[in-house]
Specification:
By secondary structure, this protein is an alpha+beta fold. It is built from 12 helices and 9 strands. It has a 6-stranded mixed sheet with strand order 4-7-6-5-8-9, with helices on both faces. A 3-stranded antiparallel sheet has the order 2-1-3, with no helix packed on it. Helix 10 links the parallel strand 6 and strand 7. The radius of gyration is 26 Å and the shape is elongated.
Length: 429
């Protein structure tokens, strides 16, 4: 019975850690943002190097995934259980503190794929710690799925696979988008409140500055051009039902007009250049971005740059890049959620996200050889998710299955050879 219980705990832990590591790996920038939230909650932002959150995002996803694979196949039976107990021993007091003080609303354990409250996370970690201790104490009861002949191959392939996934998703965009701004999403529908539900009341506050004085104002009292925009802040005035999208707004920078509904109601295409912080944005493709704007103007499409940067940063960006496209203001967190790239490009029509591109894969003149109505990039690809799942199964699950079958075949051959040798010895005697 002990052996059965140990292996139940072993496979449960393995599945949780494989899933947790994978969803972090496919969205390394999202994991980075969550680490930054933790550092801000601890007050460590000024003491930690800027590169640490991104490095930590890579390491966390890779380590969790690899430990899950090792445990699933029953390899590295000394270091894996110890590592799991160490991780859970650290996470237990951390998640207890999160549950009590609530400095971060979501722990980010499963990225954006599964959102749990802090108390739910703490309860989950209690169970995982119990399972980890069980596996550590009775680790000799874990039966391996492969022999020592090929366990190194399983370990190496698991590491290279998740490293490749993380690097690819960092260079481009997440291959799986669990956020409400995924391709095919209707932003306006995501903002709707079901009938009978009381909505949460939010208030967008603009932080403005003039002559060294800063103050928060609401949209209705947006000041004249003598005031400089600094940042935005979303404040909950009254808690109620919270739709998947609750903090989306587009305010024209030049006059403070909210043009969100104008964009939603227009039946034409709209390009949204998302640069949540212009001071940190990658300007290596600025010539291509300017060409995209020219293409939009010549074909009668809207083109806006959405940012949360100050007026000074916008002016600096315009001077350094020659940008002629109009700028609009939006919430920083919302922009980071919309696309994991700075800058990134979104194609919108009547509030529906038709396509998304990271800074390293922006459409060029060869892809934009005609009007958007005639091009495949303006159509939602309904087969993309199914194809990604298929490729994932082929590239990971099938290959590991083949390795296991080869190992099983080799082991049977070895045992057959041993039996024949023993039979020959008995005949000789």
């Amino acid at each position: 019975m002990i052996g059965l219980w140990v292996n139940i705990c072993r496979f449960s832990l393995a599945i949780v850690f494989i899933f947790s590591g994978f969803v972090k790996a496919v969205d390394p920038l999202g994991t980075q943002y969550k680490i930054q939230d933790y550092l801000a909650a601890f007050g460590w932002t000024d003491f930690i190097p800027d590169s640490f959150p991104l490095l930590g995002a890579f390491l966390i996803g890779i380590v969790e995934f690899c430990l899950g694979v090792y445990l699933f196949f029953g390899i590295r039976r000394k270091i894996t259980p110890r590592s799991l107990v160490l991780i859970m021993s650290v996470m237990m007091p951390l998640t207890l503190w999160l549950a009590i003080d609530n400095p971060v609303s979501d722990c980010g354990c499963f990225g954006d794929a599964v959102v749990m409250s802090n108390w739910q996370t703490f309860g989950k970690n209690v169970l995982l710690l119990i399972a980890s201790l069980t596996v550590l104490v009775w680790r000799k009861r874990i039966f391996p799925l492969v022999t020592t002949r090929l366990d190194w191959l399983i370990a190496m392939y698991g590491f290279l696979f998740i490293l490749g996934i993380t690097s690819y998703c960092y260079y481009k965009l997440p291959i799986f988008d669990f956020r409400p701004y995924h391709i095919g999403a209707d932003i306006r529908a995501g903002m709707e409140i079901p009938a009978g539900e009381k909505p949460t009341v939010y208030e967008t506050r603009f932080i403005m500055e003039k002559n060294g004085e800063r103050k928060e104002i609401v949209l209705d009292n947006y000041p004249d051009s003598t005031w400089t925009f600094v940042d935005t802040r979303l404040v909950v005035k009254e808690k109620g039902y919270e739709p998947p999208i609750h903090d989306f707004f587009i305010v024209r920078q030049e006059d403070g007009e909210d043009i969100t509904d104008k964009i939603f109601d227009d039946d034409n295409y709209t390009f949204l250049l998302i640069a949540h912080q212009l001071e940190l944005a990658d300007d290596s493709t600025i010539d291509l971005i300017n060409e995209l704007y020219d293409y939009s103007v010549s074909n009668g499409y809207f083109f806006y740059c959405l940012t949360s940067s100050s007026d000074e940063e916008i002016l600096r960006w315009q001077d350094s890049t020659g940008a002629e496209y109009p700028f609009c203001l939006a919430d920083n967190t919302t922009l980071r959620t919309m696309i994991r790239s700075n800058p990134g490009l979104i194609l919108l029509k009547e509030g529906v996200i038709l396509n998304k591109w990271g800074v390293n894969e922006l459409p060029d003149e060869y892809q934009l050889s005609d009007r958007l109505e005639m091009l495949p990039i303006s159509k939602v690809d309904v087969f993309s998710s199914a194809f990604k799942v298929f490729m994932l199964i082929v590239s990971f699950v099938v290959i590991l299955f083949v390795i296991c079958m080869f190992d099983l075949y080799w082991e049977k051959r070895r045992l057959r050879k041993v039996c024949l040798e023993q039979a020959d010895e008995m005949n000789d005697n």
